[in-house]
Design brief:
Layout: H1 5-13, E1 16-19, E2 24-27, H2 28-35, H3 37-44, H4 58-62, H5 89-94, H6 103-112, H7 125-132, E3 135-138, H8 142-149, H9 153-165, E4 170-174, E5 177-186, E6 189-192, H10 198-208
Antiparallel strand pairs: 1-2, 3-5, 4-5, 5-6
Helix pairs in contact: 2-3, 6-9, 8-9
């Protein structure tokens, strides 16, 4: 009697199927010889190992595939520059993009508008704050921020509260207006609050004064 074509092909491929009685994989020809072709055909449809072409045991075939455990990347402090640079045109895009209207965009905005060498403004954000107090600050009215990002003043206030709560910025009052501190200067290096851990933030408070941060 001719052997079933499916079993013949499996024999040529060297397929193994799981034998429940022997508790191991056996060649399909051996399985068919002992249990018959119908049982062998059923076993050919049991999930198989892609590496060995061997049938998986009942326990193995019922187990869900294990997913790779993902871990957060540990960034090494490299600069985001060149083709990956974040350009200030993102703020123009934010005016018409709800996805960009959030506290993260506001943080980038404040960093973009922080003091640079030679900057002149009424709060003297470079000469006084940066040069003497060693703080990186931005001075923009909430109304101007709201217009620049295309949102309400209330949204800006809510995002500022969130950034301050998460210790990404600090606020100080000069006159009747806020200045937004986003980092400090130590020697010739700038350190932004977003890159600091809890211990560093405590050290900043000890060196620069103020309430616990």
């Amino acid at each position: 009697m001719a052997m079933n074509r499916e079993i013949q092909e499996a024999c040529k491929l060297g397929v193994y199927v799981y034998d429940e009685k022997l508790k191991r994989n056996v060649h399909i020809f051996q399985f068919a010889s002992f249990y018959g072709e119908e049982a062998a055909i059923q076993q050919l449809h049991v999930p198989r190992s892609p590496k060995t072409n061997e049938a998986l045991s009942g326990a193995e075939s019922s187990e869900p595939a294990r997913k790779k455990i993902l871990k957060p990347v540990k960034f090494k402090g490299n600069f985001i520059g060149g083709k990956k640079a974040i350009k200030d045109l993102i703020f123009e895009r934010a005016r018409g993009s709800r996805a960009l209207q959030n506290a993260t965009t506001l943080l980038l905005y404040l960093i973009q508008h922080s003091a640079w060498q030679g900057k002149r403004d009424k709060h003297k954000t470079y000469n006084h704050w940066y040069g003497k107090k060693k703080m990186i600050v931005a001075s923009r009215s909430q109304e101007q921020i709201a217009i620049d990002l295309g949102v309400s003043v209330r949204s800006v206030q809510r995002w500022l509260d969130a950034l301050e709560k998460d210790k990404l910025i600090r606020r100080d009052i000069e006159g009747r207006e806020n200045v937004y501190i986003v980092g400090v200067v130590a020697g010739d290096r700038e350190h932004y609050f977003y890159e600091m851990d809890k211990a560093m933030l405590i050290g900043i408070e000890e060196n620069y004064g103020g309430d616990e941060y």
